[in-house]
Amino acid sequence: MEGSKAINVFLARIFGFYFFWLVSDNYLTHNFVLFNKVWSFIYHIFLEVVNNSSTFFLERLGYSIVSDYRSIAIVGSFGVVIGNHCVGFGLSFACFALFTSYPAPTKLKLWFVPLSVFFIVLVNILRVVALTIFIYKDPNVNSAEQHDLFNYMIYLLVFVLWIVWIQFIVPTKQKKPI
Fold it and tell me: Range of 101's domain?
């Protein structure tokens, strides 16, 4: 694709994915039982991975953990609650949309997109582990500020993945000699 046409197609795809997300997360989940079950199951998978992996890492670090479906705490502290917006599904979907919308060979997308989602989930797990330890070490810590700080780190990760994708993974056109 050439110039502005490629940009327009890329932007149309991104907005299409965004529209799908908005309709899915805000309308279909509330109005169609089967869709709600599938969508909720995806959130459930992300939540289980983040919760169980965070618990695993905290236990390997020597902490006694109390954990249920949505929360993790080191014994003697308040711990953290993992909401749907904290499991990384939305950001993983956005990353999927960004990389699959960009004009590149499908075979590159087949390995880079899952790898990117893996990194997002891994950083999210490390975020939950760190927040849980911060709250244990200092119960007066403002978890909202720490939460935002780690969100910025995850957004930075997506930005770095995007730069790697554009600069190093996707082949560039051969420059024509002048």
Answer: 3-165
